[in-house]
Write a structure and sequence with these properties.
CATH class of the largest domain: Mainly Alpha
Distance between the termini: 80 Å
Number of strands: 0
CATH architecture of the largest domain: Orthogonal Bundle
Strand content: under 5%
Shape: elongated
Number of domains: 2
Radius of gyration: 28 Å
CATH topology of the largest domain: Rna Polymerase Sigma Factor, Chain: A
Number of helices: 8
Length: 179
């Protein structure tokens, strides 16, 4: 079955006609679109960006030859989707940022020096073992996820962690005996 040419779906339009539609939509409904996005919970700058992005996407769709029955409804739907995408991004960042924040350095006593000693020893491990140990013990990631990050199998990640821990035990016990 042959695809229907875009010219049949939407008569060939000029760039000027597409620009005129988008410009008119912005002039007549821009503030209503902005208010709509603001009511969806975005700040002023974010709302303005969402409206602008929706209008740019509308213009691109017109230039591709896409037939859009109701440009206003299409733009509202796009604004809604952009706002929801922004909320999802914000929620993901709120979960990620605490994990990226530096750990408190207010430790005192031997516990702090022990941690420094251990992580200094981890730094001396071969790269793959070091990465797996950091990801598993510092970032608390499961071996399946570490495997995807490092580009190895989950059993390979477990093996690297096991070998790294064995190396750390022997290094730290040798330091303890000599120290």
């Amino acid at each position: 079955m042959q695809p229907i040419p875009a010219e049949v779906l939407r008569p060939i339009a000029t760039a000027e006609a597409d620009n005129a539609i988008v410009t008119e939509l912005h002039e007549l409904h821009g503030s209503a679109l902005f208010d709509f996005v603001r009511h969806l919970g975005l700040a002023d700058a974010e709302a303005a960006d969402a409206v602008q992005e929706a209008l740019v996407r509308l213009w691109r769709e017109f230039r591709r030859g896409t037939a859009i029955d109701s440009p206003l409804a299409w733009t509202y739907r796009t604004c809604y989707r952009l706002a929801m995408q922004h909320h999802r991004w914000r929620r993901q960042m709120s979960r990620l940022l605490p994990r990226l924040a530096p750990r408190s350095t207010e430790y005192a006593g031997p516990e702090s020096s022990d941690r420094v000693t251990v992580w200094t020893a981890v730094d001396s491990l071969p790269p793959r073992q070091r990465h797996v140990v950091y990801l598993h013990y510092a970032s608390d990631l499961p071996f399946e996820q570490i495997a995807r990050i490092v580009g190895i199998s989950p059993s390979g990640a477990r093996t690297h962690a096991s070998r790294g821990l064995a190396t750390l035990r022997s290094q730290l016990s040798a330091e303890e005996v000599s120290g």
